[in-house]
């Protein structure tokens, strides 16, 4: 995961629901030349480091599931994902359930590293 951060020159990762004060602190840290990773995303990254299952199951994730997992990682709710992808909210729930099972993850925040890997891996 660190390899992805470095190879794509990402300087920060922050949650979409971060309050304004913390957002400006993150910008300040990045502007000072440091890397910012939101605590919830850092926990997800550490969880990812403990499990190699994401890489093993990457090819088992369908194109639609890839779209869903990327939107989940961006903080969208099921209803918003359904609207964006023109599918039902129930279908989104099924996709998320399948993704969690395939990635051997227990919650949505653990999908962030997987989403990053999917976004930056060749299709």
From TrEMBL:
PROSITE patterns named in the record: HTH_LUXR_1 (PS00622), HTH_LUXR_2 (PS50043)
Keyword Transcription regulation: yes
CDD domains associated with the record: LuxR_C_like (cd06170)
HTH luxR-type domain residues: 54-119
Listed Pfam families: GerE (PF00196)
Keywords of the record: DNA-binding, Transcription, Transcription regulation
Highest rank taxon of the organism: Bacteria
InterPro entries named among the record's database cross-references: Sig_transdc_resp-reg_C-effctor (IPR016032), Tscrpt_reg_LuxR_C (IPR000792)
PANTHER family: DNA-BINDING TRANSCRIPTIONAL ACTIVATOR DEVR_DOSR (PTHR44688)
Protein name: Response regulator transcription factor
């Amino acid at each position: 995961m660190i390899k992805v951060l470095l190879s794509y020159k990402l300087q920060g990762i922050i949650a979409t629901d971060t309050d304004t004060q913390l957002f400006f602190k993150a910008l300040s840290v990045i502007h000072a030349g440091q890397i910012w990773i939101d605590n919830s995303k850092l926990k997800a990254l550490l969880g990812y480091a403990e499990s190699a299952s994401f890489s093993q199951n990457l090819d088992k994730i369908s194109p639609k599931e890839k779209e869903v997992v990327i939107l989940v990682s961006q903080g969208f709710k099921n209803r918003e994902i359904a609207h964006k992808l023109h599918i039902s909210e129930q279908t989104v729930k099924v996709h998320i359930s399948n993704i969690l099972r395939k990635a051997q993850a227990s919650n949505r925040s653990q999908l962030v590293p997987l989403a990053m890997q999917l976004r930056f891996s060749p299709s």
